[in-house]
């Protein structure tokens, strides 16, 4: 799986959030029968948390491109889900480290969007970075390993951030694609 799959997954998950958000407005009392718009600018803040999540995600991607590819002239797409392809297009000629960080951010956002949409089972497909066991659980804002003997030096259950899981995932993907070539 390369960066294209990762960005497709992230875009699909973000589109789902936007869709959910637009649907809420379309079906709300007094919302009227307006055709759903893919632009989030003129959407009433019915679900403020989701809206700010979408905005923060797009902003993070835009800022990454601003910093790493300051010469970018292509405007940000209107459709929030288009932001990942936009980011990839505009960092295409950057070095591998920039692309790796980019892919890690995109994958982390994919996980965040899934959790925002209520699908916290998304972390279960990941191996615990501590013991390598698949089947992490999402609990109070972190991924937790449930293996009995997987403990920190202080005897606590290790907790992993989505950023950590994303970094491990992208590193693993790179290893696989190197082996495949
Ligand atoms: Zn573990």
Low-confidence stretches: 29-38
Write down the secondary-structure element order. Answer: HHHHEEEH
Order of strands, widest sheet: 1-2-3
Estimate percent helicity: 40-55%
Count of alpha/pi helices: 5
Radius of gyration: 18 Å
- Strands, count: 3
Tally the structural domains.
2
Give the end-to-end Cα distance, rounded to a whole number of Å: 13 Å
| Bound small-molecule species | zinc ion
Overall residue-averaged pLDDT value: 86
Biggest sheet features:
3 strands, antiparallel
Query: Judging from the principal axes of the Cα atoms, what is the shape?
Result: globular
Q: Please indicate the percent range of residues in DSSP E strands (runs of 2 or more).
A: under 5%
Q: Decide which structural class fits the backbone.
A: mainly alpha
